[in-house]
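> run fold Carbohydrate ABC transporter permease
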Amino acid sequence: MLFPIYMGILNSVKTQSEMLTNILSFPAKFQFANYSSAFEKIHFMRSLGNTIQIAAVGLIGIIACASMAGYKLSRTKGRLSSILFGLFILSMLIPFHSIMITLVKISKELTIQGSIYGLGMIYIGLGVSMAIFLYHGFVKSIPRDLDEAAIIDGCGEFRLFYSVIFPLLLPVTATIAILNLLWIWNDFLLPLLMLTDSDRYTLLLSTNMLFGEYSNDWSNILASLILAMLPVVVFYLILQKYILNGIAEGAIKG
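> ok
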């Protein structure tokens, strides 16, 4: 798994001729200018800003909606609750390619095609089912006594959730955040379908513009991919402790 990353970093500091001659060899001289060139060609700061905005809208929406839905469905016993939870699970089995054309047509009719925030809303709809599934299982490990004690103390339903329950969901929330961030950050097809203006392109779409019709500047392409990878790696390292705890606790308690 690490070997392709190593090869990408190694060849991103070579000249084009060196890379085409032997991709396994070390460069005669490290060409760090490839990174500054790629930084300018893909308009890195603008593309990074677009990607962060899309990811932020998607993550905030997924966590806000899924945490409340997962909690309510887990705490509510009944046929309707089971049916709704089953429908969310069923939606996870539908391949994206089967709804792709319909999704594009609906986006055009709603005039959200080409909008960064519209794309973020679509990610919420596509990502909420998996998050509800994870929250639903995690909430089962939280004693109902906490709910009852908070209600006796005068907590309303929303205050109960955000003041008592949601802080206990931090491990699984971190897991959901990183899984969905990796998905949104590395997604290529949906932004390609939805974003029509190059000024709103994500990092991957901007990198894709480096591919020419007759030739490709692989040194700049690889440098761009490494630059696009760094922010999400840093995000993972910051949340690594919570992510591992969330996965472990979810496996044991779920």
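Residues 218-253 form the longest helix (36 residues).
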